[in-house]
Amino acid sequence: xxxxxxxxxxxxxxxxxxxxxxxxxxxxxxxxxxxxxxxxxxxxxxxxxxxxxxxxxxxxxxxxxxxxxxxxxxxxxxxxxxxxxxxxxxxxxxxxxxxxxxxxxxxxxxxxxxxxxxxxxxxxxxxxxxxxxxxxxxxxxxxxxxxxxxxxxxxxxxxxxxxxxxxxxxxxxxxxxxxxxxxxxxxxxxxxxxxxxxxxxxxxxxxxxxxxxxxxxxxxxxxxxxxxxxxxxxxxxxxxxxxxxxxxxxxxxxxxxxxxxxxxxxxxxxxxxxxxxxxxxxxxxxxxxxxxxxxxxxxxxxxxxxxxxxxxxxxxxxxxx
Length: 321
What we know:
Oligomer: single chain
Mean pLDDT: 84
Strand order of the largest sheet: 8-12-11-10-9
């Protein structure tokens, strides 16, 4: 889990025993607020902060500076031209030429990616990051990132993905790709939705948006939108598609102690009243874990099938007899 606004006492915490105890793992973050967490396909944990992306290697977080932005292309090209102009007319030793080339190359690579990293999503080996400096993609477990062609270089607040679908959004606009980010198309948002607070995409290409006015779902890439007939909910703060269980997990400020699960494709609704003000819920194994705004992490007890318990007791008694 990541913590905001706590400086040395914040950062990232990890539990290896189901949430019974937690240890701080923030060495190398330098007190950065953690806006988002993700995990690469090789297990590497990534942190999106207010000052770039960090990768956890052992016990230490390392900042990722191998981020290719469009501005770099022109600066690198300019650096190459400068190097050629400097090196060509100089009639000195090879050593002098090498020094000149090294200086221009160093000048071109002094770029630190310092943007807000608001969300991280993954499909297979591909990672996506929504940042204040554009939408990024990585196919190297987060070691290097490239600015995606197509989306404008603006402040992206959300990114969600499932199979080949990628949905990215600001607070008032959205783009959709059906081919892993190769091509993008704008999404017409619902007219009654004033501002986005959460987004998700399911593996059938269904788009899910959440905001103050509730939940909106589209099965036709945003051409039309509809709500959930059996769930009236407003002020949504989190949507998460749990692909293994084929369900959408939902929390909302208006019903802040309840975690909802909408199962696909029939859209049947299950819910749990946790007793805590939830900011989001995520699946961990066979139970849910929730993050609260002010009361830490809450864990759903592991449920036991009473009929199975009764059957085991009957078997035990029979064996004893």
